[in-house]
Structure formats: structure tokens, C-alpha cells
Amino acid sequence: MTVTLAELVVADPPDAWRSAGFSVDDEGDCLVGGVRIRLVGREGGAGIVGWSLGGLPDPTRAELDGVPTTAAVPSTMPTGPGVHPLGVTHIDHVVLLSPDLARTTAALAAVGLDVRRERDAVLGGTPMRQLFFRLGEVILEVVGAPGSASDGPAQLWGVTHTVADVDAAAALLGERTSPVKDAVQPGRRITTLRHRDLGMSVRTALISPHVRRAGPQ
């Protein structure tokens, strides 16, 4: 069975996300593509404090490499995308920071997730490795230092959302987001929200859709 991302639990107030151009219902739920973002307020801490995954082999699982984890119940999983003033259509990828890439990779393999791609980079002068997994429609990007291992849990760090028109989204947010620039992915463009200015605790970026390459005529 395919493991999918069904829900992210975020310790932000719903009004912060509304001010950023997301649609949030009266229960504090924000539906982005096939994923529910449940906004539980500051009492829950800060940032992404847990997730719910569909297709887990063990429905009683309570954590995944230290990340609070629940098994999604099919009858309560999102069934359709929300409509947002920002033009968000779905989640492109979620970033998971790992203090021990080998340990995190093994934990993900134990629930049926395999590395699809990897990339080496340098961030702030420090070598980093990015490992990419699939959670249904969402890419999971695991980031850590290669050849290094330390104690502590993995941590859900940030989210990049696909928007229909990245320039229109940036114009809507104005000074609350960075200038649009070319993304690492060829043909795509990206902007990063100044999330603290919006009252959000989740590092958030907006990216243009994938470029569709024409096939043989």
C-alpha cells in the first residue's frame, strides 16, 4: 500500500494563515490539494508538530523517527482541494530535518518509503544532503549532513506550496514575501514568505507549477 500524507498539524492560529491568503474553515482546517493542514494554535507549541499518514503498515504507530505520527483514517481523509485567495493548488514538498540521515532513512524504509533521488549541496559553507521520497502527491525532502549523526528527533521544518500564478501570489502578499526568483527546479520560480511578519511559525515558500514538456508530435 502506498504511504501518503493526509494531514499536517501546525501550531499556528487560523487567522495568521487567513492573512497569508489561505482559506481556513471555522474548525481551523486548511485544505491544500489532498492534504489537511490542522491549525491548533500556539498552545500546541510552534511549527509543524505532527502529521497523519495514510497507508501505514502499523495503524497504531505514534511516531516516525521522533516525529509525532498518526495513521490516517480513510473516511476522514481530505477528498478535494480547497480554493485559496493566494492561488495555492497543492503542496509541492515538505522538508524534514534529520540529525542522522542513516537513521531517518531506515525509519522511513520501515514503513515502505524508498529514496527516489538524492542531491548534495552546500548551505552556509556546510555540506548537506537532500533525500527525496514520495508521500502520494507530496514530495518529502529529508535534509541532513552526510556522514554525521547526532541524537534527537527528526523535525518537520517547512512547506512549499504550488501556486497557479507565483507573480500574482507575490503581488497579493506584497512586502510580506521575498522577490520571485528562479527555483532550483528548471523552469520554475519561487518566493519565500516572511512568515513571522504574517504570524506564522512554519517556514513557507510558494513555487510555480511544473513545466510540462511537450511529447512527440
Residue share in β-strands: 35-45%
Order of helices and strands: EHEEEEEEHEEEEHEEE
Overall 3D form: globular
Largest sheet: 8 strands, mixed
Write up this protein.
By secondary structure, the protein is mostly beta strands. It contains 3 helices and 14 strands. It has helices at about 15-20, 100-110, 165-175; strands at about 5-10, 30, 35-40, 50-55, 65, 65-70, 90-95, 115-125, 125-135, 140-145, 155-165, 180, 190, 205. The strands form 2 sheets. Strands 8-9-10-7-11-14-13-12 form an 8-stranded mixed beta sheet. A 6-stranded mixed beta sheet has the order 2-3-1-4-6-5. The N and C termini lie far apart (about 35 Å). The mean pLDDT is about 90.
Topology:
Layout: E1 4-10, H1 14-19, E2 29-32, E3 35-39, E4 48-54, E5 63-64, E6 67-71, E7 88-97, H2 101-110, E8 117-123, E9 126-135, E10 138-144, E11 155-163, H3 166-173, E12 181-182, E13 189-192, E14 203-207
Short structural summary:
With 217 residues, this protein is mainly beta.
Characteristics:
39% strand, 217 residues, 6-stranded mixed β-sheet, 8-stranded mixed β-sheet, single chain, 3 helices
